[in-house]
Specification:
By secondary structure, this protein is an alpha/beta fold. The chain has one domain: 2-enoyl-CoA Hydratase, Chain A, domain 1, CATH 3.90.226. 42% of the residues lie in helices and 19% in strands. The protein has a six-stranded mixed sheet, sandwiched between helices. Strand 2, helix 1 and strand 3 form a beta-alpha-beta unit. Helix 6 crosses helix 7. The N and C termini lie far apart (38 Å).
Length: 212
Amino acid sequence: MIDLDRSDDIWTVTINRPDKANSLTHVMLSQLADIMEGAQAARAVILTGQGKVFSAGADLEEARAGLATSDVWERLSGAIAALPGLSIAALNGTLAGGAMGMALACDLRISVARAKFFYPVMKLGFLPQPSDPARMAALIGPARTKLILMGGQKITSEQALAFGLIDQIVPDGDLLDHAKTLTADTVTAPAEIAKGIKVMCAGSALDVPNVG
């Protein structure tokens, strides 16, 4: 249910469970984490989904059995955040719940227009994964983060773009091609340049106040 294509120094990772809205089981999350931990040599990683939904979050049966609070989510998002190359979440549709963490950990997020974004932790009675609120607040500010996490708001792709949650809206048929285009400079430049830019960006973020 997780597909991996390695070509031209770009790893494309696809969540492939469209009959279940790409909901994630513990096995799938562990496989994703294994791939991301093994992708240190990749110059770029593109994370996407099969079908009309990127991911509905945790598989409901497994969530009730404890997956919603498992540390596997943090293992995955931490592995993505640690990638030395460019990471792109190519969101082929709606992004919901715990699946938000892997997209937040990516360097860039591009999305099709029909996507919706929500993280209903208050309704479900769970805390978000530990790193997710800080990563979200770094992108969109603390007030908008609370609007999503505490206010339970489902936002459109246009709102997500205006907030800064995503970086570009792309036509459906162009999503993966556009993601690969965004990786072109990183793939052809020396690896240490990409790694250095990411370190510099992380440092500069410490000096920029969040706008809520």
